[in-house]
Design goal:
Layout lengths: L1 E6 L2 H13 L4 E6 L5 E3 L2 E3 L1 H10 L16 H8 L10 H15 L4 H11 L5 E4 L6 E6 L2 E4 H7 L6 E7 L9 H7 L2 E4 L4 H9 L4 H6 L5 E4 L2 E2 L2 E2 L4 H7 L6 H8 L5 E5 L6 H6 L3 E5 L6 H13 L1
Parallel strand pairs: 1-2, 1-9, 2-5, 9-10, 10-13, 13-14
Antiparallel strand pairs: 3-4, 6-7, 6-8, 11-12
Helix pairs in contact: 1-2, 1-13, 4-5
The chain binds ligand FO1.
Length: 304
């Protein structure tokens, strides 16, 4: 069985763990967002790719990103010397950014570097950055344009967002991305933020069309429960961008790409509204509180 998952960071990574537990023999490909990437301390950082990598390698930090129990000696020195200390890079994490930056400078594609790092970390699933080209999420706010991590981390997602654009939209898909969507038995959209995690993947050339052409077999899992985002600024973004702040708002947004929409039991009363959008609603518990919960959720998304 071949499963392809489109994923942002924490939610997508945890959902992928559930898929791997629910279907241990499946060939799983994760297509990861690179719109969050940034150059920091002169290094190329790929937060969502790394979150998937560390999570599947069993090394992820308690916050859901970074490396578990990482030290912050480099950060302390940067701070002491008056450098930029708003984005936390732990010492072990830093090692990955050093290797990636050096290999990118030697013209190796990001996808090849990620494949090698994943193999060295013992990750069985295939992790594909959506593109090897530069693609960056830019938030158009009341205070002007902000690079994604500037908005999310440095400004704590406070500036009101009026629109979002993707610098480098139309970039070619990384090798294997379009094939992974076309040939999977099932394509899953992880419970990731549609505007800042899934849209940058959809901005890659051919991805949206590849999903549309197999819409009936694409399953999305709601990232919002009873109007509250499980993680991150999804509720605010739905409001600011003029969408209903609910699972139905997300379902309506994803409807052109998705045949089945998995929503939380707390939103059971909205299943009819999801069906009215032309989607098949499936109601289950979507909160991935522990390993059992994420495996059960993945099982539903895989078998529904
Ligand atoms: N999130 C934060 O809220 N603060 C940070 O300082 C921070 C650093 C960081 C470093 C490496 C990494 O892979 C992720 C990091 N994140 C941090 C998470 C990241 O900003 C976002 O959660 C994702 O980009 C959204 O999926």
């Amino acid at each position: 069985m071949r499963i392809t998952i489109l994923s942002g960071g924490v939610g997508g990574a945890r959902f992928t763990l559930g898929v791997l537990a629910a279907l241990p023999d499946a060939e799983v490909t994760v297509i990861a967002n690179v719109g969050d990437d940034l150059e920091h301390w002169g290094l190329h950082v790929s937060p969502d790719v790394d979150t998937v990598l560390y999570t599947l390698a069993g090394r992820v930090g308690a916050a859901g990103w970074g490396v578990r129990d990482d030290s912050r000696h480099a950060l302390a020195t940067v701070r002491e010397l008056g450098g930029a200390d708003w984005f936390i890079l732990g010492d072990h994490d830093l090692g990955l950014h050093v290797v990636r930056t050096q290999r990118l400078a030697a013209s190796e594609p990001l996808s090849a570097i990620v494949a090698d790092v994943a193999a060295r970390m013992g990750v069985g699933a295939r992790i594909l950055p959506a593109t090897d080209a530069r693609l960056r999420t830019v938030m158009m706010t009341d205070e002007g344009e902000l690079a994604f991590q500037d908005w999310l981390v440095r400004r704590r997602a406070e500036p009101v967002v009026r629109s979002i654009r993707f610098d480098g939209a139309g970039a070619p898909a990384a090798p294997g991305v379009l094939e992974a969507i076309a040939t999977a038995d099932r394509v899953l959209l992880a419970p990731s933020n549609p505007f800042i995690s899934l849209d940058p993947i959809l901005a890659v050339a051919g991805v949206r069309e590849a999903l549309e052409s197999r819409r009936a077999t694409v399953v999305a899992v709601s990232p919002i429960i009873a109007g509250r985002a499980v993680k991150g600024p999804l509720g605010e973004l739905l409001d600011w961008l003029g969408h209903e702040r609910s699972t139905v708002g997300v379902a309506r947004y994803l409807a052109p790409l998705v045949g089945t929409f998995v929503l939380d039991a707390a939103d059971r009363a909205r299943a009819a509204d999801v069906r009215a959008l032309g989607l098949r609603p499936v109601v289950t518990d979507t909160l991935m509180a522990d390993a059992a919960a994420r495996t059960a959720l993945a099982h539903v998304a895989l078998t529904t």
